[in-house]
Amino acid sequence: MPxxxxxxxxxxxxxxxxxxIFGSISIALxxxxxxxxxxxxxxxxxxxxxxxxSSSRLYFLNMRAIKYDRETRSDAGMVLFRHGKREISKTxxxxxxxxxxxxxxxxxxxxxxxxxVDWPLEIRASKDxxxxxxxxxxxxxSEFLAYVRLLEPWIADDAKFEIKNESVWTSFWSKPKEKEAxxxxxxDYFRLINEPE
Length: 197
Known about the structure:
By secondary structure, the chain is of the alpha+beta class. It has four helices and eight strands. The radius of gyration is 28 Å and the shape is elongated.
């Protein structure tokens, strides 16, 4: 008695050939693309926002730090860098942009340091007809970086800055050497954390 041929073969020879072709193309594509993947997943749970590489830290310390006044805080294991061209006054309110290196964690931070004025800070930036008032609170590293990112376009646009102290607005970051110092600080900091400006 002749055997009936099955008409519903799932893996026909043609389908096997197609699967082999697409399977080998898929594997080859994954292998090729893995060579061009520069972004790696961060599965450590660490925040890499402030991470500085050894090469960027060494470059800063050997080439750029000469422009800064250095303060070592051994109690916190940090070194603070304030630009040498900043305006120093014993009475006028101002704001210093400080680079902080934490060598224990290989991290770099930006800090907005009030001078002759207390927290919270009220900063007014103006350029042409545009005016923006920023409320700045004492916070953590991420918050300070966020404040700097808000101020950065105004700094780049050569805006006029004022800070409020007891209902009086006082100009700061107004001299050309201070504006140049601000640009230098931002460039140095973003190079430290390997982030293009």
